[in-house]
Amino acid sequence: LDSTMAASKGSTSSFQRRGARALPLGTVPSRQNAQLLVSTGVRSLDAVLGGGLAVGATMMLQEDTHRMYSRTVLKLFLSEGLACGHALALASADRDPNGVMRALYPEAVRSTSTGGTTRSQPSQSGPVAAAAADGDSAAMSIAWRYRKSGQVNTEVGSQPSGGLGRDFDVSKSVTPEQLAGTSVLAIDLRTCCRDGDPATDVLCGIADLLPAHAAVLTEVTAWLKDFAVERPTASGEQRKVARVVVESLGSPLWPSVGPELVSTVRLLHRLRAMVRQSFAVLLVTMPCATVAPDVLRRTVHLSDTAVRLEAFAGTPNENSSVLKDYHGFVHVLKLPRLNTLTCFYPDTLDLAFKLRRKKFVIERIHLPPDMSETVSRTQGAAPKHAAAAASSSATRGGPAPEW
After folding, report:
1. Whole-model pTM?
2. What are the two backbone dihedrals, phi and then psi, of residue 125, each rounded to the nearest 5 degrees?
3. By CB neighbour count within 10 A (0-12 exposed, 13-18 middle, 19+ buried), where does 65 fall?
4. In Å, how far are 129, 227, 264 from 302, measured between CA atoms?
5. d(CA 170, CA 172)
6. I need a surface site. Which of 101, 202, 374, 402 has the fewest CB within 10 A?
7. SS3 of 30, please?
């Protein structure tokens, strides 16, 4: 009996408990369906989309008229990938992709009151200073009817959850040391000229694409092989996520004008199929002013998420006294619905964005209360008109939202 017990102790079981596999860098599981999510670089946009952008998803960003704010969102998307250690790919036809990479934003550093230094406060004098000395400054700074109401925080996703998302300083650029070591694919379509073999193009499935579209598809396909889901991984290896960005697809700078616009839709369809089979996310920006409406509708249908920016610059809303705190509307055209019959729906779709000195935020449209007691009835028509414009901002000037 003793020999039998000794033999049983010396033998090992073939069953071994496998430990939990580490998640890819910069990802968190979704609270709705446990899918892996990455941040878009704008924490408030992550909150609108239900926590972030799912790995394998395609996001369509319809640019504003002057493309100033859409370029900021594009750089924030890449800056988030740089901060998380993701691989970055950018295809552009109007500027140098390497220059865009060098101009990415660094992560914002919050100043603290260490070393005996504190933030300076503005000096006060007169009755306000006397009230502050008595502890009544808070009571005097707000009307009596609003004392019991809490401070309204209109920023979407102001409270971070799950550790996803960062704040970036849009007034600075990253250093070469911060960019070193990152896997970067830059596709400059201004100098990219592809003359392939027609027989090979047929085998690769790019014979029906324009040369610029075929070049993007060929480069991205070869680059994403290292991020394929089916690629075997070594023991202890941690997966990495790739971020692919195609800037201003369908603009006049791309050779896709006229009857060849169908090549744009084909390119997006095949890019989406590749990203869906990889640990990658795809961001495609399109100019609304130069792309045909039917092509915009088809690209929105092909995307998992679609958002449009409408800037106030050059419009009557630019001089509106009610919307003076915002720089434009945010139209949510399509919300993600992956592996589920229902999708996350935000509290409101009346959204606007503003570009602060060091931050890009999306907020709920909040009309401030009128503090005047003698305001005329004619002046009250302006807020009502602005509220009506805000309530219809989700569908104005674009396709109906797809839920």
Report:
1. 0.77
2. -150, 165
3. middle
4. 60, 22, 12
5. 6
6. 374
7. coil
Helices vs strands, H then E, count in the chain: 12, 12
**Beta-strand runs (E) in 27-118:** 28-29, 36-38, 53-54, 58-63, 87-92
Sign of CA dihedral 12, 16, 19, 24: positive
Q: In this structure, which amino acid lies at residue 211?
A: P
Per-residue pLDDT of the chain (403 residues; tens, 9 = 90+): 455 545 545 544 554 445 556 788 889 988 877 789 999 999 999 999 988 999 999 999 999 999 999 999 999 999 999 999 999 999 999 899 999 999 999 998 765 545 443 333 333 333 333 333 444 444 445 555 555 555 555 666 655 445 577 889 999 999 999 999 899 999 998 886 555 544 344 445 577 788 888 889 999 999 999 999 988 877 777 889 999 999 999 888 876 544 457 888 889 999 999 999 999 999 999 998 888 888 899 999 999 999 999 999 989 888 888 888 899 999 999 998 887 777 788 888 899 999 987 889 999 987 766 655 554 555 444 444 444 455 444 444 455 566 5
